Amino acid sequence: MYAKCGSLTEAQMTFDRLPDKNVVSWTALITGYAKQGEGHLAIECFYKMQQQNLKANELTFSIILNVCGSIEDLYLGRKIHEHIVGNNGFECNIGIGNALIDMYAKCSSLEEACIVFNKLPSKDVISWGSMIAGFAQHDEGLYALQFFESMQCWLKPNKIIFLSILKACGTIGALDQGRRIHEKILESKLRLDIIVGNALIDMYANCGSMNEACGVFNSMSDRDMISWGAMVAGYAQLGLLDSAVVYYEGMQCCGIKPDNLTFTAILTACSHVGLVDEGWWYFTVSKNCIGIIPNESHYNCMIDLLSHAACLKEAEEQATLQPN
RNA sequence: ACAACUAUUGUCU
């Protein structure tokens, strides 16, 4: 209970006072640490538990695998995998299998994720979803699309599958495929909520079709920071600073304060077009008026902008110096 | 019996 409420100190204290600690109490504590992003503490608990000669169960393993994925510790993930194969009959368990797929995908080893996937005797929507998301996140949109197609011989895609596949279409600029998936979403009785809407905007924006992104944006009844941010980013990518700024200011008119990510997109737009003065202006104004504290990405953008501009100047000089 | 896990939407690198 304490672990779930995010009070880990109390969870730990209660745990320490328990006269008999069993797998359930250890797993509850490990889950608490994992959920709070304290991956290393979760792993430490996992080792301590084993020192007590307590055998981890399916749940303990899936949580630890999840931790391996989030801290991208492929080495430990493989060790746990071997341990599971060697000591328990869990390798055919779908929950463990899915956790393994996700772990390998998050650790960028899609080959190993694939091996686990192929070995799974029965695959559910989460098994497919973990693969598709893994491909989408590693710029392997074509594989994601292939898996998406094959999956439909067996299962109906759910909302999460659609979100992943839209992402995949965006990363490879597959506009036609994206449109077809948009239609499929409309055909399915899935509610076109803010998250699906945002994913559609993002897909169209990444495919460079701001008209369609705009269409989705306008059709939405509710919009959040991500909806606006995706529009800003879309125009920014194309170097259309003016349009990006329309949405950047639009969101502020709607009472949504741009965050660091939105602001980075604006600076990117300036950098793509080489607008040094505008970049500086937004950098200064946002710092002073909106209260955005520049972070590393912002400085990176500014460095990009300035070096890009310097190159252009040099290039211009070169061009004028050239005899013809 | 008690813990119940795992895939998902915006920026730069």
Task: Describe what you observe in this structure.
Helix content is 74%, strand content 0%. Helix 14 packs parallel to helix 16. The chain has 324 residues and is mainly alpha-helical. The protein binds one RNA strand of 13 nucleotides through helix 2, helix 4, helix 6, helix 8 and helix 10.
Outline the fold blueprint.
Elements: H1 8-17, H2 23-35, H3 39-51, H4 58-70, H5 74-87, H6 94-106, H7 110-119, H8 125-137, H9 141-151, H10 159-172, H11 175-187, H12 194-206, H13 210-219, H14 225-237, H15 241-253, H16 260-273, H17 276-290, H18 296-321
Helix pairs in contact: 1-2, 2-3, 2-4, 3-4, 4-5, 4-6, 6-7, 6-8, 7-8, 8-9, 8-10, 9-10, 10-11, 10-12, 12-13, 12-14, 13-14, 14-15, 14-16, 15-16, 16-17, 16-18, 17-18
The protein binds one RNA strand of 13 nucleotides through helix 2, helix 4, helix 6, helix 8 and helix 10.
User: First CA to last CA: what distance?
Assistant: 76 Å
How many strand segments? 0
Computed over alpha carbons, the radius of gyration is 24 Å
Give the overall shape.
globular
Order of helices and strands: HHHHHHHHHHHHHHHHHH
Overall average residue pLDDT = 87
Class by SSE composition: mainly alpha
Total of DSSP H or I helical runs spanning 4+ residues: 18
Strand content: under 5%
Give a quick account of the main beta sheet: strands, pairing sense, barrel closure.
Answer: none
Low-confidence stretches: none
Range of helix content: over 70%
